[in-house]
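#lab-general

N.A. 3:47 PM
ok so I finally got the sequence cleaned up, no stray characters, all 171 residues accounted for. can someone with queue access submit it? mine expired

B.Y. 3:52 PM
send it over

N.A. 3:53 PM
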Amino acid sequence: MFVNLLRNNKVVAGLLTFIRVYIGYQWLVGGWGKITGGFDAEGFIQGAIGKATGDHPAVQGWWASFLETVALPGADIFTFVVMWGEFLVGIALILGVFTNFAALMGIIMNFAFLFSGTVSTNGQMILLTLFLLVAGYNAGRFGLDRYVVPFLKAKVFHKNEQAYVKPAEMH
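B.Y. 4:20 PM
back already:
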C-alpha cells in the first residue's frame, strides 16, 4: 500500500520533487567543490585504509583490501569519477532527468563513503534516496523524466514492435 502510494500519487510526487532537488543540490555542491577545489582521492583512500586498523576499526577489512588493491592504484580514475559523478548526479536529480539511475549512482557513492568510514550526511542521503528509488518514475514526474521517459519508451524500446510477431500468432 505504501509502495503504491509512493509510485502513483501525484501529491507524493510533489513531495518527492522537494527531496530529489534537496539531494541533488547536496551532490551538485559537493561535486562542484571537488572540481574547483583540487580534490585528490588518493588522500581520502589512504585515510580510509588507515581506519581499518585498531581494536574497533571504522573500515571493514574487505573494503580496505579493495581500496588498497584497486582504488589506490587507480586513484586518478577515482578522483575523476567521484568529482564528476557527484556533480552529474546532482544535475540529473535537480532536473529530474534519468532520476532513478542518478539516485542509484548517488546511493552507491553514499555507501562507498560509509564503507570508507565517513559518516557525515551519507546516512540521511541514503534514507531519502531510498524513497526516490522505491517511487520509481513518480520521483521524476515533475521533472524532465516526464518527457524523456515516454520518448525513450516510444522511440527506443518499442522501435521494432510492429515487426515482432509472436510464434502463437503466426498460424
